[in-house]
Write a structure and sequence with these properties.
With 116 residues, the protein is an alpha+beta fold. Helices cover 39% and strands 24% of the residues. It is built from four helices and five strands. The N and C termini lie far apart (31 Å).
Length: 116
């Protein structure tokens, strides 16, 4: 099991490597999070789970595609948030999801300037 600090370091490293602009280190409901434009795009739920911002209509597809990584709880049902098992997801997949979550939450003008 990972500790929250090492999870947060991994998230920050991957966001930086992806070149995501204007990422802010912050908290979201008391846990470490990365934000853009004041909105969290990823937060740490606990030492096993992170939560990504995602359009609601994309959640089921990811859960079906990789149920070992992505899952749903009653708490997040109906919300644009997707729990992720952090110890199972690889860096490439996580980077792809961080970029998508950043794009989902970033102000439109800022998102338009990002080239992945």
């Amino acid at each position: 099991m990972l500790d929250v600090n090492s999870i947060f370091e991994r998230l920050k490293r991957l966001a930086a490597q992806a070149g995501l602009p204007e990422v802010e280190e912050a908290t979201h409901y008391g846990t470490p999070a990365l934000k853009v434009g004041g909105k969290a795009f990823v937060s740490i739920r606990n030492s096993e789970t992170i939560v990504l911002a995602i359009p609601i209509d994309e959640k089921e597809r990811l859960i079906e595609m990789a149920p070992d990584i992505y899952f749903q709880t009653d708490h997040y049902r109906g919300w644009p948030s997707l729990p992720v098992r952090i110890d199972v997801i690889g860096d490439d997949e996580l980077t792809m999801r961080l970029v998508a979550a950043w794009r989902f939450r970033a102000p439109r003008k800022l998102a338009a300037t990002y080239k992945s």
